[in-house]
């Protein structure tokens, strides 16, 4: 893929986005959906003057990102013209690197999946073949996407990794990945902006936009490993050292079976051993005990469950986690909801790539 105008490692290759205010208006229009919003509503919500909104939306319309959505019902005066986001105007790609499978999706500006592809992957083969596989997947799902290249590519990988620098850490069981600059290498190969984060953080992003006051959610992933993604007060929390969410390596059984992380009695080894034995209710009970620890620590509002193991028996895992939470006397006032996650990891990776296009409006409007 060739580098488009404005492409950079940390941004989006979309010249229309000249600043914060454009991203605020696009975020408001995305949230409004097909019905759209009027210019006066946009001005009030964004803390901008109507004149500023008119200028910005005219630029966005010229780039094909915004279009008329008809007129609002008259309340006695001239009917208001409504504006809406044009979802198909651009797209982003999300890639999930699991230990044995690669999944890729292309999404439109509303986050809806318009193309999907998956293939076996040997993550342990090392960086070079995996990079080749990612490039091939991005090209594959971007076919027939129109004239515009993706605004970005989100890549979700097993941790630990440094999401700020885009450098992989010593992934459990795959030490050959330590120190590999995955984001930089992919950006160079693709000629596109690339975002790299842990698979669990991507899955939290797939659950939908946050924002101030959105509460605390945790995503618990059960697949080839266990991990957690955290959304604290509406914002995805990676931690100062990108180490937040190592949920699977809390010790539940002192001197228990050895875990591939080097510890013993970790939640991950206990849960996955139960899965390997075909004892899914027991695996769900073990997951629930770990979830209860997290809920008590963080005062969680929502628990989302995902990953291929959960996807194969969602009712079993939801019931097991709910039962564990109900059994804890400290979690009795307003127990968190427990549901399957609404989106997959690849979809969340695409959401991370879309994120620079949208920002939440300021909490206190400051008119200009």
In short:
This protein has helices at 20-32, 39-46, 50-62, 127-141, 182-190, 199-206, 267-276, 280-298, 308-312, 314-326, 345-354; strands at residues 37-38, 66-71, 81-85, 91-97, 101-108, 113-120, 153-157, 161-162, 167-168, 194-198, 217-222, 226-232, 235-236, 302-306, 337-340. With 368 residues, the protein is α/β, with parallel strands linked by helices. It is globular and about 75 Å long.
Helix-and-strand structural type: alpha/beta
Low-confidence stretches: 2-11, 362-368
Name the helicity range: 25-40%
Strand line-up in the sheet with most strands: 6-5-4-7-10
| Shape designation | globular
Radius of gyration: 22 Å
- Quote the beta fraction: 15-25%
What average pLDDT do the residues reach? 87
Strand-and-helix sequence, N→C? HEHHEEEEEHEEEHEHEEEHHEHHEH
Distance between termini?
40 Å
Q: How many alpha or pi helices?
A: 11
- Largest β sheet strand count, sense and barrel closure: 5 strands, mixed
* Total number of strands: 15
């Amino acid at each position: 893929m060739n580098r488009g105008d404005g492409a950079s490692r940390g941004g989006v290759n979309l010249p229309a986005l000249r600043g914060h205010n454009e991203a605020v208006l696009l975020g408001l229009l995305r949230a409004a959906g097909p019905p759209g919003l009027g210019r006066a509503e946009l001005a009030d919500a964004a803390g901008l003057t109507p004149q500023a909104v008119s200028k910005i939306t005219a630029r966005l319309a010229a780039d094909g990102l915004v279009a008329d959505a008809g007129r609002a019902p008259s309340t006695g005066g001239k009917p208001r013209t409504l504006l809406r986001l044009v979802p198909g105007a651009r797209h982003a790609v999300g890639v999930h690197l699991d230990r044995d499978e690669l999944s890729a999706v292309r999404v439109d500006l509303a986050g809806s999946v318009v193309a999907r592809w998956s293939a076996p992957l040997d993550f342990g083969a090392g960086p070079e073949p995996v990079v080749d596989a990612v490039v091939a997947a991005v090209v594959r799902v971007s076919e027939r996407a129109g004239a515009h290249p993706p605004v970005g590519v989100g890549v979700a990988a097993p941790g630990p990794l440094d999401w700020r620098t885009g450098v992989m850490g010593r992934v459990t069981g795959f030490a050959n990945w330590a120190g590999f600059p995955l984001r930089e290498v992919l950006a160079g190969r693709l000629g596109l902006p690339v975002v790299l984060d842990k698979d669990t953080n991507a899955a939290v992003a797939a659950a939908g936009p946050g924002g101030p006051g959105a509460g605390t959610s945790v995503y618990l992933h059960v697949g080839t490993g266990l991990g957690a993604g955290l959304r604290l007060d509406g914002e995805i929390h990676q931690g100062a050292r990108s180490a937040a969410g190592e949920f699977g390596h809390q010790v539940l059984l002192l001197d228990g079976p050895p875990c591939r992380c080097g510890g013993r009695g970790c939640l991950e080894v206990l849960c996955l051993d139960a899965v390997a034995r075909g004892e899914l209710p027991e695996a769900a009970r073990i997951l629930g005990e770990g979830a209860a620890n997290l809920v008590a620590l963080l005062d969680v509002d929502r628990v989302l469950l995902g990953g291929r193991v959960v996807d194969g028996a969602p009712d079993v895992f939801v019931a097991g986690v709910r039962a564990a939470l109900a059994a804890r006397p400290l979690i009795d006032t307003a127990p968190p909801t427990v549901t399957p996650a609404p989106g997959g990891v690849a979809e969340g990776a695409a959401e991370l790539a879309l994120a620079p296009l949208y920002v939440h409006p300021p909490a206190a409007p400051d008119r200009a």
